[in-house]
Amino acid sequence: MSEPTYETCPTSAPFFGFMGVTAALCFANIGAAYGTAKSGVGISSMGVMNPQLVMRNIIPVVMAGVLGIYGLIVAVIIQGSITTPDSDGFTKYSSFTGYAHLAAGMCCGLSGLAAGMAIGIVGDAGVRAVGQQERLFVGMILILIFAEALGLYGLIVALILSQQSFECSAAR
After folding, report:
1. Under a CB-based contact definition with an 8 Å cutoff, are residues 32 and 67 in contact?
2. At CA 58, angle to CA 51 and CA 53, rounded to 5?
3. Which of the chain's ends, N or C, has fewer CB atoms near its CB within 10 Å?
4. Per-residue confidence at 3, pLDDT binned at 50, 70, 90?
5. 3-state SS track over 94-144
6. What's the pTM?
7. Which whole-number Å values give the CA distances from 170 to 85, 86, 88, 103, 164, in the listed order?
C-alpha cells in the first residue's frame, strides 16, 4: 500500500466533517421545528372545540421533537471523531473520513427534515380529525409511527457511515 499523500489528507478535510455536524443538527432541527409548529397549530385549533383531547393529541409534537435528538446524537458522534491538526498544521483526518462524516450528517439531517414534514402534516390533519371522531386516533398514531421511522432510518445509516474512517500516518 502506498503512503498517504497531501491529496489524501489535506488541511481542508475537517471542513467536510464539520459540515456533516452542521447538516445533521440543522436539518434535523428544521424538521423537528416544522413538525412541532404544524402539529401545534392543529392541536390549538382542535382544542377550541375539544379541550379535553389536547393532552392526548400532543403525541405528534413529541415525535417531532425526537427528530432533533437524532440530529444531536449524530452531530456529537461526528464531532468527537474530528481530530485537530498537529503543531505543524498537518492533519490525520483524511478526505475519506470527511466525506463519510458529511454523508452521515446529510443522511440523518435530511431524513429528519423529511420525517418532520410528514409528522407535521399528518399531525395537523390527524389531531383535527381526532377532535371530530376519536376512533381515528389509532390510525393517526400508526401513520405517525411510519413517518418517524423515516428519521430513524436516517439515524441508523448515519451511525454506520460515521464509523467509516481512514487516518493518515505521520510520514508526509
Report:
1. yes
2. 25
3. N
4. low
5. CHHHHHHHHHHHHHHHHHHHHHHHHHHHHHHHHHHHHHHCHHHHHHHHHHH
6. 0.90
7. 11, 10, 11, 26, 20
